[in-house]
Structure formats: structure tokens, C-alpha cells
Amino acid sequence: MEQVSDFLVYCIVGNGRVANHFKHYFNLQSIPFKTWPDFDGCQVVLILISDSAISSFLEDNTKLLFGKKVIHFSGSVVVAGAQGFHPLMSFASQLYELESYQKIPFVVEKGKYSFDDIFPRFPNPSVEILPEQKIYYHALCVMAGNFSTLLWQKLFSDFEKKLGISKEFAFPYLQRIYKNLEIDSDGALTGPLMRQDFTVVKAHLALLKEQDEKMGDIYNGFVRAYFPEFFL
């Protein structure tokens, strides 16, 4: 790995949610940075824009980027001219405190630079994966993080609108699911699926088919994927 100084000069490209979080992280760490299009004196360019815009940005700014360490934060994109450093985290609209940022794991696309080469002043944990593993890695992240969020949003909404139950009432359930996964991921599944109580599952599917076909399809898809014996 090439030697780098602890006092690198950074330029952050992007104004979206993730970019704003990392600008805040840099400020909390008292690390100065510049923002696009001010590349003057920058050694490291951090590209925090949408996946679809990364390639064109690199192509349009080849001369400006020449000789700089160019890093993008996409979890799935592999592109010549930039190395991927993906923060494995969910970024909400509100900014976080320093400790939360320092705990963000980074999944680094194996290449020219290590995490410490680019962020010598960040204490974050990091691992490396091969470029060809990125799409699978990112698909897993999206399924686990985004899909579960959509299901919890559905529960919160229908609790309040259809059942008259506040979403806060379900928070202990959500927190216990998280803790069970953290403590014993292999044994965390509970309820009728764990018990293989297909009488209950059949009743769920019948009701959802009548009242919420889209959610019925989702439920059916999970059961087919993980418990195919139910359909034998």
C-alpha cells in the first residue's frame, strides 16, 4: 500500500443525505474538507452521489481527478477510476452523534487503497471484499435493511389506521427482534413459521388474499422460499 499522511486534504462531492452525514462526521472530527467543485489542493476526492451518476462524473472530470485518490461510496458500483468504500449503515434524515459515526462499518472494494490509507483519522471498523462480490453483498444489505423497513412501516401504519393501536406499542416487539438477532441469529425466528404451524399460516394467507393482495403475495413469497414443504 502506498504511504499517506494523517493530514490528507479531502473534497466531498454530493449534497444528498449520505453526503450531509459525512460532512457532519468530518466536522465532528475537526477534519477540514472542501466541497465540489473546489478541488484545489485536494488529495482525496470522496464521491457521494447516486450510483447512476458516478460513471458520468468520472468521465466528465478526468483531468481534474488526475493524480488524486478517488473514492466512491456505492455498495454495488464497480468502475474504473474510483475505488468503492461502502458505509454499512442506514442514514436517516436527522444527523447522528459522533459515536454513531465512529461505529459505522465500511466494506471496502479490494484494490489500491486500504481504509486506513484513505481515512487514517477515522476509528471505523472495515473489511475488504472482491469487486465481483459487491452486487451480492449489496443485494443482501437491501433485502435485510430496506425490505424489513418497509414491512415495519406497513405494521406501524396499519396498527394506527386500521386497528387503533399506536406504533409505539410495537416498539418493544421491534427491539426484542433486534436483540434476539444480535444475541443468537440462528435461533431468532419465532412464531408460526418457527413452529411450522401451517394452519395459522394458511389462515393468514387466506385473509390477506381478500384484504391486502400485495402483502399476501409478500407473505406467500417468504413461505415458498423458506418453507416449500407447506406447498407439497
Question: What can you see in these coordinates?
Answer:
- This protein has helices at 17-28, 51-60, 62-65, 98-102, 115-118, 134-162, 171-183, 191-195, 198-211, 213-226, and strands at residues 10-13, 33-35, 44-47, 69-72, 83-87, 106-109, 126-129.
- The chain contains ten helices and seven strands.
- 16% of the residues are buried.
- The radius of gyration is 22 Å and the shape is elongated.
- The chain is of the alpha/beta class.
- The protein has two domains: 10-129, Rossmann fold (3-Layer(aba) Sandwich), CATH 3.40.50; 136-231, N-(1-d-carboxylethyl)-l-norvaline Dehydrogenase, domain 2, CATH 1.10.1040.
Q: Can you give keywords for this protein?
A:
Rossmann fold, 47% helix, 2 domains, 12% strand, alpha/beta, N-(1-d-carboxylethyl)-l-norvaline Dehydrogenase, domain 2
Q: TL;DR?
A:
The chain has 232 residues and is of the alpha/beta class.
> How many distinct helices?
10
Instruction: Report, as a whole number of angstroms, the end-to-end distance.
Output: 55 Å
Strand order of the largest sheet: 2-1-3-4-5-6-7
Q: Major sheet: size, sense and barrel closure?
A: 7 strands, mixed
- Find the CATH topology of the largest domain: Rossmann fold
List SSEs in N-to-C order.
EHEEHHEEHEHEHHHHH
What is the class of the largest domain in the CATH system?
Answer: Alpha Beta
What is the CATH superfamily label of the largest domain? NAD(P)-binding Rossmann-like Domain
| Amount of helix | 40-55%
CATH A-level architecture of the largest domain: 3-Layer(aba) Sandwich
Shape: elongated
Given the helix and strand composition, which structural class is it? Answer: alpha/beta
Indicate the radius of gyration in whole angstroms.
22 Å
Low-confidence blocks of residues:
1-5
Estimate the mean pLDDT confidence: 94
Strand content: 5-15%
Count of all domains = 2
Number of DSSP strands?
7
